Amino acid sequence: MPSIKTLPFAALGLVVVLAACGRKPAAPPQAPVAVSKAAPASPAMARPLAFDQSDEAAKVALRLPAEIANHPALHALLYDRETAGLKTFAAKAQADRKASDGKFPWRPYARQSQWFLVADTPPLVGLRALWFEDTGGAHPNHGGSSLVWDDAARREVQPKALFRPNADMSVLDKAICDAVAQAKTHREGAVPFSAMFACPKWNQTVVVLAPSTIPGKIGGLTVLIDPYVVGPYAEGDYEVVVPLSAFQTLLAPAYAAAFGGAPKSPGNPDGTLSVRMDVVK
Prior knowledge:
CATH architecture: 2-Layer Sandwich
Mean pLDDT: 86
Distance between the termini: 21 Å
């Protein structure tokens, strides 16, 4: 994994209470619900690992891990999708700037995404991302994203494809809920679950493949939960690790052999993130 630096934007956001916001954070760009196939990328079509665009209206940036170059079709799909979203964001910033009444100095918008390779276990490749966005609100917004890739089929698969169609997913729901509840006990100021901030369902979270203690296997799931989902914005986001033993019986036969052992890392006790974004200046 590449070197990681402190993410000041998230720290800044944690001092702002929910009442000061007045809105929920913008959701990260979502992958298509249906399984999508990517056309093979030829060497001439090789994508870069970074994208930067800056003008008077906005600054956007993308960083991809070097290891993604080993999977050209995945590289092409992710780079093209992410840059398209960033260009759309920049165009919206330009339109907002032109439409502003000029009463206040324009503060340029900003958006950045950074992806990390977290698992490369044939046939599955797993990536996770951190994204940050500032559109001039009470505080910047941030969150996580993930992507699961079937390298043998050369296609993206949605997390639900990892599980049997008739699987009782309440088992995974409970494992996630228990892990978050435990993490809350280690986080100062964390609010208990309530009608406003209830335990999330597994498909309301960002699911990431977690490497195993057994080389070449996936040992569990890293679950990312954005701010506002299980607590106020000031409480921050959560990252919890669910071991394979908690959901192994739910796995689809097509992918069950890729899993084994236990998670290589249990995560931080208070559920804070295990990676940080390299901030583009």
